[in-house]
Amino acid sequence: MPEKRKDSKGRNLKDGEDQRPDGSYRFRYNDKAGNRQAVYSWKLVPTDKAPPGKRDGLSLREKEKEIESDIRDGIDGKKAAKLTLNDMFAAYMDGKRELKQSTRSNYNYMYKNYVADTIGKRKISAFRYSDIKNFYNSLITEKGFKPNSMEIIHTILHPVFEMAVRDGYIRTNPTNGVMTEIKKGHDWEKPKRHALTVEEQEAFINFVAQSDIYRHWLPLFTVFLGTGCRVGEIIGLRWCDCDFKNHIISINHNLIYRVQDNGHCEMHITTPKTSAGCRTVPMLDEVRKALLQEKQRQMRDGGCTTEIDGYSGFIFTNRSGYVHNPSTINRAIQRIYTAYNDQETAAAKREHREPVLIRHFSVHNLRHTFCTRFCENETNIKIIQEIMGHSDISTTMNIYAEATESKKQESFDNLQGKIKIS
Fold first, then answer.
1. 42 closest CA partner among 32, 29, 55
2. Contact by Cβ (8 Å): 29, 17
3. Which pTM value belongs to this model?
4. Paired residues of 28 in beta bridges
5. Who contacts 170 (Cβ-Cβ below 8 Å, separation ≥6)?
6. What is the pLDDT, as a whole number, of residue 74?
7. CA-CA distance, 369 to 276, in Å (whole number)?
8. Secondary structure (3-state) at 308
9. Which of 201, 219, 230, 267 could form a Cys-Cys staple with 196, CB 3.0–4.6 A?
């Protein structure tokens, strides 16, 4: 029986282990592809001390256990030790051929500005759950990230690490469960969009209609509140999308205004995210009238000459003849309800009554407002879903349940004294 090999301290060495002339230890093995590999350490076991001036890392036996575990689980630890998060992100994005250009640009912009030069240079195998949690917290405390921005970062990082798991570089995804804990720790819930009440909606529209300053916005807001379309669908609406004879509006594209890879905001045309987004919306008489008013204004002012990604003939334009962007519309909305609230507060004080004020809202609330009014007057959920372009009917159901809550109370009030129950 051959004599066991020993190290300089007289300890038995296992198969594949040896001690080199400089005193360091080596373990040689075959990786899962059958290639010969080796790892080194100044310590054989964890209780050893590294020689003065030498790196005090994992012992050889600890590294052996990791290697054995990696081989058993199909993990390519050697390659993982060379790959950075930036490498994995590049590979992930290269494989996501189905991403829309707008989404790709958004992902690249967020990653480049907040990940690439922070945790992006770290090796993919070095990440732990706590590292991701600390990084997310730093974005909140140091960069002032809000829920939506955090969701974008998480939406980028989670599948990148998931790909690393599936490719056999790491065992578990360190981003799993982090956002849930972050939301609890910061008492985060996505802000719920509210619909304007009937009183708020009437006050807003009446104020715009009677204002010499803001009256030119009325056709746009009428179309928002009369179709329930998304902001990108309305600012990208063209005359050829409107069938005035049959009273139908075709929704088949979006106009987006987003940060591109170069860091600049640009206007681009994109198709709806889901097939449900492509739809037709009946044209209410008020909407038809508003559109024709805008047609007359354009004919008087020289029409719209803007062309974006080959699309032209846009309906809603600013005084320079260029399409609106959502920020401009939101600023107009804020100016309008602020002016209305100031006027209404003064009038209520003179008349010794409580003012009817309009809460803060943005252009996105106009879509929610239309959906709420629609739900209050329509019981067929599928029709509501199709008009709104919701891909998931649960979205429609949630708005329907909220919108009809007051209707339930009204129904019971009408029931009072009409049935014998005692």
1. 55
2. no
3. 0.68
4. 38
5. 75, 80, 124, 125, 127, 161, 164
6. 66
7. 20
8. strand
9. 201
Residues 6+ apart with CB under 8 A from 165: 171, 172, 173
* pLDDT tens, residue by residue, 402-411: 887 767 777 7
Q: What φ, ψ does residue 120 adopt, rounded to 5°? A: -65, -25
Helix axes 326-350, 363-377, angle to 10 degrees: 70
Q: Contact, 16 vs 27, CB < 8 A?
A: yes
Beta bridge partners of 311: 308
Both tokens of residue 107? 């992902």
Closest CA to 175 of 189, 161, 187: 161
Encoded amino acid at 141, one letter: T
What are the pLDDT digits (tens) for 209-247?
A: 999 999 999 999 999 999 999 999 999 999 999 999 999
What residue type is assigned to position 10 of the chain? G
Where in the sequence numbering do the catalytic residues fall?
Answer: 230, 273, 364, 367, 390, 400
C-alpha distances (whole Å) from 102 to each of 42, 98, 107, 363 are 51, 12, 9, 21
With a cut of 80, say whether residue 348 has pLDDT above it: yes
Per-residue pLDDT, 262: 65
Query: Is the pLDDT assigned to residue 1 strictly greater than 60?
Result: no
CB of 219 closer than 8 Å to CB of 315? no
Residue corresponding to tokens 């290639």? 35
Are the C-beta atoms of 308 and 323 separated by less than 8 Å? Answer: yes
